[in-house]
Amino acid sequence: MVLDLVQTIWPYFTAAATALVMLSATGHAILYKEDSRAAVAWVGVIWLAPIVGSVVYVLLGINRIKRRASVLRGEDPPSYLLEAGEFLCPVESLPDHLPADCGHMASLARLVNGLTQRPLVRGNAFEPLYNGDAAYPIMLEAIEQAEHSVSLTTYIFANDKVGRQFAGALGRAVRRGVEVRVLIDAIGARYSFPQVIHRLRKAGVTAAKFMPTYLPWGTRYMNLRSHRKIMVVDGVIGFTGGMNIRKDNLVQEIPRHPVQDLHFRVRGPVVRELQEVFAEDWAYTTHERLTGSAWFPALEAHGKAVARGISDGPDEDFDKLSMTLLGALACARRSVCVATPYFLPDPPLTSALSVAAMRGVTVDILLPARNNLRLVQWAANAHLAPLLERNCRIWFTPPPFDHTKLVIVDGVWVLMGSANWDPRSLRLNFEFNVECYDPALAAQLAPLMETRRLRAQRVELDDLVNRPFPLRLRDGMARLLTPYL
Fold it and tell me: Can you tell me the distance from the alpha carbon of 21 to that of 29, in angstroms, rounded to the nearest whole number?
């Protein structure tokens, strides 16, 4: 009789539980999805595929990024606050450091002030370093000459010819009594085997992995990675940009998979901001606080550039870089030049690029003709037509693969660093960029961009839309995966 009762009640219980789960998931989507289109889409999935749709929503639709990242960072403010003092550059005085026709960039500086809560500092110098052929020898020399400290964080630190050179130089610095800390992203560390972290520790270097994961499917598509590339020597010489540590960047040696890239040697008060970002990540990972003059010495001027660091990530720094890009595009009056290896702009960025071009701004977007990630290239192709329709100029640069990440606006504002124009960089990873208000640096970088543009093939709208149907369908399907690429 009990069995009969169970058999009678069980269907009703199952139906009630299913309805409760679906209603709960629906309510969550309605309340917490800011984009109404996303809310409607998820509600459709939940109700069209009972139980399965709710499970998929719980796994993929709930944004845990802010919640998880708040645990990463903790609640205590950093003890190594920037002490810019005489090097502070208030927004009101920024036009004094720029050409007469560039005063409009002060509105961008005001926007980034509000976003980052970091001040602009003057007295900085930036030296572009093209490819590993130029960057690695200078970085290695800086490590060899270090007297007090070396901090280094990167996404990929390969256990190859270049990685062994860096590991050797860092080990020798430790033996000289230099404080050395190395932080490698746990997924990036897997790009070579055995991992270089074992070599570093054997050499006496204090090294750690950022957010280690032991899942077998931990790949380049995993979220919440540290994509930052920062090295600071003695607290006064900084290096940042888009370059990892691997032999593929030695383009002149013709490796099997050559990668062009751009890095910068930085001097001046803004180096303190590079060090602060490293110290914050290191404190989270190891619970060790880096303080004192070995890490944060007195600030000195080395040039005339006005600059500021911009941290971006799925935590309290969420959306800062995306909004900075939107502000820069809104401020542009004459020209915008973008170089990025991965180009999957969201609708606001696509609209901002289009509006700038339609206002009469010359918008050039340089992308690799042959990407190292096929899915990303196919998805990127599906994003190009709306931009071409609105007068943006898009160029495919020939091999070797160009990993450069650079934005120049009106020949005066330069954005350099680790972030790509894709959801992974702008929403899911920890990134670090530097904005620089310096017409001299922009003029120094302009020939690089122009040379690459002259060698590139311009993308024509007719050629794009008249491709065979299977290719267009492939790219359209890849575009659907944009949030996960």
Answer: 12
